[in-house]
Design a protein that fits this description.
The chain is α+β, with helices and mostly antiparallel strands. The protein has 14 helices and 17 strands. It has 3 domains: 86 residues, Phosphorylase Kinase, domain 1; 170 residues, Transferase(Phosphotransferase) domain 1 (Transferase(Phosphotransferase), domain 1, Orthogonal Bundle); 138 residues, Kinase associated domain 1, KA1 (TATA-Binding Protein, 2-Layer Sandwich), CATH 3.30.310. The protein has a 7-stranded antiparallel sheet with strand order 5-6-4-3-2-1-11. Strands 12, 13, 14, 15, 16 and 17 form a 6-stranded mixed sheet that branches.
């Protein structure tokens, strides 16, 4: 069994840490500086087939324009004849959504801190003429210090001069502003702020202000701003939320009003953002260039003889510090978009069990080498729900199964993962106390 070796320019590419409909996100290391990064890998043939060239170019351009401490940073873009490599800041603290699922709701103080960072980031985007259009907790990441980072600018818009209204309806239904649901056009700034108001409500309440399985009923409630704040909300918090979730975009509170609101001002320290850097958009053309860049090469072993090997250093890099419990502790009451468990069963037994369980859960099962893709329909029947499971060897006769959501709702993934683990109970390794012993595991791996 050989370890996969891939290189893109100065970056050594490692394992997959995220997967979507059109792209994979890989962990990578800058061999010149030792810095860990995330690389979004897209196949050019897929971009062309789905007519996504302009969208990807726009996303790259926008991420270069909106450099800010509370926005995931884009480092550079590389290209080979077949693929695009978008090199991004590696954010290791998970999604803000995970915090909500874990705690049920956040304290008013915690909610305010995240909301202040969100508004700082959104204000910076709007100052550059950029509107995100898909703000939701799943697209808000946390770094290792617990600071918020806005991500996923795939649906964002860069408003041309002289054009006052946007017309494309996009985003996640529960977070959409009323005017986005109409066909009259909308102000991107006001629509983003509505989404921020929904996020603030979710942080403090632990549930959505507008939540119906039936879309016509959901849209009706959004258009009427039909919601109530829980009694635990302070009067100042209620005041601000009602000013943001105003169904009339003309009278909805603006950024400046939010920043001057008494609730927002508590413990607020305006971010000292440095001078804007000179922006180089030369590599945006990499999206459609057909000339192979000789600095981008890929060499990989298919892994046909067994699962890929993951060493202790790689695992530590993917956990927070030296504490591996974040990787394997299934005793917690929550799971993240990407989750893992450990097994001492033979790799082939693990794969066959996963396949059987996937079929019993009515998924279409696709297996190649030691990687399985489970494809199904989301619970609300509005789109795909896809999960990818991959087996890695971390020590002799010890395997880690990496589980990650590729498509679908994050909350649905949380439910799926708990159900999956219950069905795979007979192959999941536990220490005597019922959970994997991360210190013993690390000793086993480093012998």
């Amino acid at each position: 069994m050989k370890k996969v070796t891939r290189k893109a320019g100065k970056y050594e590419i490692g394992r997959t840490i995220g997967e979507g409909t059109f792209a994979k996100v890989k962990f990578a290391v800058n061999t010149e500086t030792g810095e860990s990064v995330a690389i979004k890998v897209l196949a050019k043939i897929t971009i062309l087939k789905h007519k996504m060239v302009d969208q990807i170019r726009r996303e790259i351009s926008i991420m270069k324009i909106v450099r800010h401490p509370n926005i995931v940073r884009l480092h550079e873009v590389l290209s080979s004849r077949e693929k695009i490599y978008i090199v991004l800041e590696l954010v290791t603290g998970g999604e803000l959504f995970d915090q909500i699922v874990y705690k049920g709701k956040l304290s008013e103080k915690q909610s305010r801190r995240f909301f202040q960072q969100l508004i700082d980031a959104v204000a910076h985007c709007h100052s550059k003429g950029v509107y995100h259009r898909d703000l939701k907790p799943e697209n808000l990441l946390l770094d290792s210090h617990g600071n918020l980072k806005v991500s996923d600018f795939g649906l964002s818009a860069l408003q041309p001069q002289g054009i006052e209204l946007l017309h494309t309806t996009c985003g996640t239904p529960n977070y959409l502003a009323p005017e986005v649901l109409s066909s009259q056009g909308y102000d991107g700034a006001a629509a983003d702020l509505w989404s921020c108001g929904v996020i603030l409500y979710v942080l403090m309440a632990g549930f959505l202000p507008f939540d119906e399985t039936d879309l016509p009923t959901l849209y009706k409630k959004i258009k009427a701003a039909e919601f109530t704040c829980p009694c635990g909300f302070s009067s100042d918090a209620k005041s601000l939320i009602h000013k943001i979730l105003d169904p009339n975009p003309e009278t909805r509170i603006k950024i400046e009003g939010i920043k001057n609101h008494p609730w927002f001002q508590q413990h607020y320290v305006p971010l000292k953002h440095g001078e804007d850097e000179e922006i180089n958009l030369d590599d945006v053309g990499a999206v459609s260039d057909d000339i192979e860049d000789e600095s981008v090469t890929e060499q990989s072993d298919s892994g046909k003889n067994g699962p890929l090997i993951m060493n202790a250093f790689e695992m530590i890099t993917h956990s927070q510090g030296l504490n591996l419990s974040a990787l394997f502790d299934r005793g917690q009451d929550y799971v993240k978009r990407q989750t893992r468990f450990v097994s001492r069963e033979p790799a082939k037994v693990i794969m066959s069990t996963i396949e059987a369980v996937g079929e019993s859960m009515n998924f279409k099962v696709h297996t190649r080498c030691y990687k399985t893709r489970l494809e199904g329909i989301s619970a609300n029947k509005t789109g795909q729900f896809v999960v990818v499971l991959e087996v890695y060897e971390v020590a002799p006769s010890l395997y880690m199964v990496d589980v990650r959501k590729a498509a679908g709702d994050t909350l649905e993934y949380h439910r799926f993962y708990k159900n999956l683990c219950a069905r795979l109970e007979n192959i999941i390794w536990k220490a005597k106390d019922g959970a994997p012993n991360s210190h013993a595991l690390l000793r086993t791996m480093t012998r």
